[in-house]
Amino acid sequence: MFKLNDYKFPYASYIAEAYGIHINQLTDLITAATGGRFKFVIHDTFDLHDVKDFGRSTCLEALNKIIQMYECEVEPDNFTINLRKKIGTDSGLQYRLKKNIVSSSSKDKGESLVTRMFAQM
């Protein structure tokens, strides 16, 4: 069992309704449900949210609900899941076809490409 979808959320950790819950509380519940296999690192500060019907089925669905509620982005690193508000930077550049682009195709010549080498004696 190495996927979040394989771990069922325990009924004792189910939250029917709660007000002003921090993201750490919910990720700690998922960590406990997986037996400490998956750990969460939260890199930004998130606002408190009201939680309703959390932890009904699998840990993956619980994580998807956290992502939806707190509008965070996930950066997985093996069994460590990093949660951030935004991954990367917005440089304002856009890639559009037939606009400000010289060509969207590349031309490489493969005549001198060697895929196999033979030894001579």
Automatic annotation (TrEMBL):
Record protein name field: Tail spike domain-containing protein
Superkingdom: Bacteria
Species in which this protein is naturally found: Paenibacillus brasilensis
Domain Tail spike: 26-117
Pfam families: Prophage_tail (PF06605)
Listed InterPro entries: Tail_dom
